[in-house]
Amino acid sequence: MPVTAGTNQTDINQRLQYEKGGLGRKYWDIRDSHAIKWLQGPKVLDVGCGEGITLGKIIRLHPDWKVEGIDVDPVNVTICREFDLPAKRGSVYELPYENNFFDSCLLMEVIEHLEYPEKALNEISRVTKQNGKIIIVFPIDWAMFAARIICLRFQEATFDPGHLRQWNNRYLVMMLKTTGFELFKAISLPLPSPLALHKLVVAQKA
Prior knowledge:
Blueprint: H1 14-19, H2 22-36, E1 43-47, H3 53-61, E2 66-71, H4 74-82, E3 87-89, E4 102-108, H5 117-127, E5 128-139, H6 141-150, H7 154-158, H8 169-178, E6 181-189, E7 198-205
Parallel strand pairs: 1-2, 1-4, 2-3, 4-5
Antiparallel strand pairs: 5-7, 6-7
């Protein structure tokens, strides 16, 4: 996001970081490709779409799908629209969509920011069709910090992203079950633990 997320006052702009290239961008693309391949269309919602990097990739890969992004930050929505991406402002706790509307919902590095994750998952369950997918990707904070230090990305390493909790697969799967989803797949990225930087969880609405 292009605004301060936590207590650190140095802003991190997603597109500027992505445009730096190098290993960071390569891994970003790997992470996104793993998540996108689990999506099922034609109606897809990118929840917390940020500046629209992943949203744009989904649209380019599936131009015949109806893909939308939603984000609580008006600056992110403005940036998305500057790139002609279909994003709107809204809250994950009150999604402006009908019941059983989407075939897939994507949460890319979103759940760790949520104060009320169960409420958010219930709302996502409401707008997801039966047998529809939810794809959740969350970072392993200590591993991301170490990787950024090794790659000399000191600004990113010391940036406070405003994460409210560190998630793990077991706790997330339990919460998904209480909100109407059943585990389909759990993957460590880019390598199995303890070399994982992210966890990817795919679940299906029961």
